């Protein structure tokens, strides 16, 4: 059901408001100008060079897929990297901008392999590209608003990424030295890994009626009907918000709802202008405090579990 609704959310803006897409593409090709240029610090690449780079990266990923699995069709890799990833970008980036939730297509790789009629085994473990650029879009938007250089952000990222990868390997080695994974010391891996393996086996074995095409079609048509009604009645209800609410766990949705209520209460108490000025600072402080508490608790649990009693 979520798959069909996701396609509807991605296609609805193209069908109901095609001029928005046309203006966006024209702005990319011509370059932004006027008032919006003041928020942009620089242009990384010309539009033509960016398009060429996009094509080359897609072809490179396709070559990697085919090298890892010779049975994986070349046309399937190209279809995945270009039309499908473009549609996924429209859905995820739009949802991020409208409702603030980073959402990924559920079981996209598995559904795609079934649709193309793949009969092998290795393809189910291929690292198909599932990063349509949501985080980069958000970071570039922050750079626009804060007048930060795009290049400085990219330099910092490419310096931090190998360091974080190296530290991640070191931390994983240290954790593995304490106890194997999965084991009772790491209950999440002990519970979740067998479940993940079971789900993966279900997709590979293709049980009857496991992939219900009719349900996808009905959910797609239903969501398109809802979008058409909202667009006609102009109710101001966000279609991506409906999808985010349906596909997000109840605990997360409830937390967002409670956060909005608390935010409105604080704004009424302290004033909307004051709250808007320090809203991000308050959120950053809460996230930082929560992260520190989690780190201290995790470190303490690991230390306690790693202590061994000696017989003397």
Classify the helix fraction into a percent range: over 70%
Low-confidence runs (pLDDT<50, min 5 residues)? 32-37
User: What percentage of the residues does DSSP assign to strands (E)?
Assistant: under 5%
Number of helices: 12
Q: Shape, please?
A: globular
Spatial extent as radius of gyration: 23 Å
Distance between the termini: 61 Å
H/E element order: HHHHHHHHHHHH
Tell me the number of structural domains.
Answer: 2
Query: What does the main sheet amount to?
Result: none
Structural class, from helix and strand content?
Answer: mainly alpha
Mean pLDDT over all positions: 78
Give the strand tally: 0
Question: How would you describe this structure to a colleague?
Answer:
Helix 1 packs across helix 2, helix 1 crosses helix 4 (74-99) and helix 11 (250-270) crosses helix 12 (272-306). The longest helix has 35 residues, at 272-306. With 312 residues, the protein is mostly helical. It is globular and about 65 Å long. The chain has helices at residues 2-16, 18-30, 47-68, 74-99, 108-115, 134-146, 150-178, 187-205, 213-233, 239-247, 250-270, 272-306. The protein folds into two domains: 2-148 and 211-248, no CATH class; 250-312, no CATH class. It contains twelve helices and no strands. 12% of the residues are buried. 74% of the residues lie in helices and 0% in strands.
